[in-house]
Structures are given as C-alpha cells and as structure tokens.
Amino acid sequence: MYRILAVVTVFVSVSTCFGAALLAQSSMNDSPQFRGTDGTGVVETLNFPESWSSSANVAWAAELTGGGLSSPVVIGDRVFLTAAVGFAEPVSFRKGVSDMSPKRSQSNLKFKVTCFDLADGSQIWEKTIADQTPKHPIHASNSFATESPASDGKHLFVYFAAIGKLAGMDLEGNVLWEKDLGAYPTGNGFGPGSSITFGDNRVYVQCDNDESSFVAAYRADDGEQVWKKMRAGRTSWSTPLFWKNELRNELVTCGSGTVTSYDPATGEEVWSISDIGMSFSASPAVDSKRIYFGNSGPRSSGPLVAVSAGITGTQKFTPDQKMENVAWSKMQSGPGMSSPVSVGGYVYVAGKSKLTCYSAKDGNVVFKTRLPLGSMAASLWAAGDRVFAMDETGKAIAIEVSTEMKVSATNQMEDDLFWSTPAIAGDSLLIRGNKKLYCIRK
After folding, report:
1. pLDDT tens per residue across span 364-394
2. Is the C-alpha dihedral spanning 312, 325, 336, 411 positive or negative?
C-alpha cells in the first residue's frame, strides 16, 4: 500500500558525470526503486545476514527528521530517502490512538530528499524540493512522503503526490527539472501512496484518486510528458510494475477493482481485467511467465489472480476461471497491504495474519499457516532461498523456500514503527523506521 517516489539524477559538469558513471557500475548491488531493480522484491542471492536485532549486525543507524513511509533507494555507495518535515509522524492503527481521523497540515511542510553514505550512514547532502502546504488531508497512519523514489543509476526521481510534485535530480542533489502534476483528494481522506516506477528511460506515475485518476510517462532526462491516459477508477495505492516477461515489456497498474496493462512506450492498453472487487494496496508479484495480483480490505478478502504472459483484450473477472490467459485464481485469498513475492516456483501471500504458499504453476496451496507476527504494512521480500516478512514493531522472520513453513531466523528491532518496505543493496539491507534508517550488514 505504501509505496513511494520520484526524483531524477544527472551530472552537469564533466567530473560529476564521471562520478555518476562510477556509481552506475555497481548496478548489480543497487536498489533503484520500490522493491528493487525489477520491482519484485526478489534478489537471486542472500548476501546480507538473515539474523539481526537493534544491536546485532547493525552497521549503522541514522537519525531521521520529518515523517515518511517511502522506501530507501540505493545507487552505488549512496542511499536516498524522502521525507516531509513539519507534520506529525505516522502512527500505528494498533497503538490505541483516540483520534485516527484524517488530518490537514495547517502550515507549510518541507519536502526533502536526503542522501546518506552507504558505508557509515553519514549525511552527504539534503535538498528541499518544495516548501508548501498540502491541499488535502491524510490519515494519521499515512505520511506526506509515502511514495518511494526511483533511479536509472544516473538520475534520481522523486514524487510527492500530496503536492503533485515530480522532480528529476542528479546524484549531487541538484534539481534538473520539475513537473506539477496536481494534487487530488483520496478515498476516505487516507492520502496517496503509489510509488513511481522507472523503465526504458521513462518515469511512470500512477495517480488514482477520487477526482481525476491517470497514469502517465515522463522522459527521464528532461521530464517531458511522453503520454498520459485518464482512468475511470478511483483511489488506489498500488505501485505500477514494469513487467519484463518472456514475450514483451508491459506497465501493469492495479487500480480500483481493475488491473490494466499499458504499452510502456505509447500508453496504449494491452489488456485489462475488471470486476476484481475493491481498490488495490499491494503491488503484484511476477516471474517471467506469470503475474500474480490480488486485494483485500479490513473486513473482506478479494481474489488472488495469476495471469499468463501474452494476455490481450478486455475481460471481466469470473470466479469459475473461464478466462483467456488466466492461469488460475483463488477466491478470498488476496493480500492485504503487504505485497506478495514469487520465488522458487512458489507465490507467497501475507494477509489476515496468515502466510499462504501457492504453487506458481497451478495455484495449489502448498501450505497455509498463521504468521508469528503482528500487523504488517511492509511488503514481503526474498533473497536466495529465504523469504522475509516484517511487522510494524520491527519483528521479522526468515522463512526457507520449501514445501513447508520453516522459520530459520526471528529478528526484532526495538522502539520504532516499521511500515516501509526494506531495500536490498548487495550485502546490505536498509530498513526504515519512523525514527531511524538502519543498515543491516555483517
């Protein structure tokens, strides 16, 4: 649900360009957008420690100012993070707060991007992108900086949906271009949350709201709009996915009861499936053959759907699965806020305090078990033969990729609130709390 983004990075001087080239060389260890290189939350090898605590295997912990639920982005030896300074930090649904109604900011907020050194957590630079008052309220559990940044290895892209600001920067914090996309009201005043996505030298923005929903593509180098498509649906919080499957590239968007795929180059619709119930919070899981998506609300569970690569046309979802290129579906099985992962021939879905493992090929349930965790907002992630899940208290478990539930490690951070999805950068795991940014490393 909370996903987060937008700034662009480009070096102007010869020396700065050279520096960017050096940073881009370490792309194998980068985490350039929400859920990593391909937006799936999966890396091939487990290089960071699977066990940690507030003191064990913590390379550094950097104090944070302002509030934000965006994920860190890592390029080379630098970590980038967004925040809104001047408003209350997000709070938990479970903390017994008496008033959880939407809140407005009564004054200007500073919308900032901060760059940290991956080696030791020291601050390299900080840039204020905007200093203004958001037009619309947000829920007490949300933030005004929920959208994660993205990068192409040379530029940084940031998006603050609360004020409609999309910006491109270089890796030294210089703003190269800005676009005003407009700020819009959201369902139940919850606020926005969809992060931006990068692919094929374009930045993609999904802005589903209660007034004028759209999806659009912008050139990375100068921010010029390549295409824009208006959408009929209302507010949703899922982050668009640039899906590189075995047949083609697609931009897949999970909206208000409808999943739509666009041609990333032109914005023309490739396929869509409607009538999938409520708005999406979680982002899809994918492999080269299929994409897996679903939704659930606080009081009901929607379907989990597996669609095969090569699908075209417009369809309505039917529970009997008699749909072209739909490999399988499971009713009342959709994820909640935490996005699923597909790894090792399995699809792992967290929802309603349970973890379910499905066969990616046919949707058969491999196992279903109660999670030893509390409320979860952070998406699942996977590295090598481990799947990780973390709740809002900072309790995290490592699960072996197998045909049964095997917890190989149980970890606990302390005295913070963890809603953001961690970022994997080689031998480092970056975990954002309300108070600190933690680097887990041996």
Report:
1. 999 999 999 999 999 999 999 999 999 999 9
2. negative
- Residue 73 has which token pair? 């982005």
Strand 58-63 relative to strand 436-440, pairing: antiparallel
**Continuous segment of H or E residues that includes residue 24:** helix 14-24
Contact 9, 169 (CB under 8 A): yes
Q: Which of 250, 212, 219 is nearest to 234 (CA)?
A: 212
Handedness of CA 89, 129, 151, 442 (dihedral sign): negative
Name 40's bridge partners.
none
Which pLDDT does position 97 carry in this prediction? 53
3-class state of residue 293 by DSSP: strand
User: Looking at residue 70, what DSSP letter applies?
Assistant: P
Contact 148, 5 (CB under 8 A): yes
Q: Which of 65, 174, 54 is CA-nearest to residue 111? A: 65
- Name every residue whose Cβ is closer than 8 Å to that of residue 62 and which is 6 or more positions away in sequence: 116, 121, 122, 123, 436, 437
| Cβ-proximal residues to 15 (8 Å cutoff; 6+ apart), any chain | none
**Number of neighbouring beta carbons within 10 Å of residue 284:** 27
| 310, amino acid identity | G
pLDDT tens by residue, 105-143:
989 999 999 999 999 999 999 999 999 999 999 998 999
Owning domain of residue 35: 6-440
Dihedral sign of CA atoms 226, 269, 231, 244 in order: negative
Q: Is the dihedral of CA 19, 22, 24, 29 positive or negative?
A: negative
268 is a domain residue: yes
1 is a domain residue:
no
**431: CATH:** 2.130.10.10
**Pairing between β-strand 341-343 and β-strand 346-351 as defined by DSSP bridges:** antiparallel
Residue 144 lies in a domain: yes
Task: Give backbone dihedrals phi and psi of 166, rounded to 5 degrees, phi first.
Answer: -115, 130
For the chain, the domain total comes to: 1
Which amino acid does the sequence have at 15? S
CA distance 8 to 170: 6
Whether the model clears a pTM of 0.85, i.e. scores above it, the answer is yes
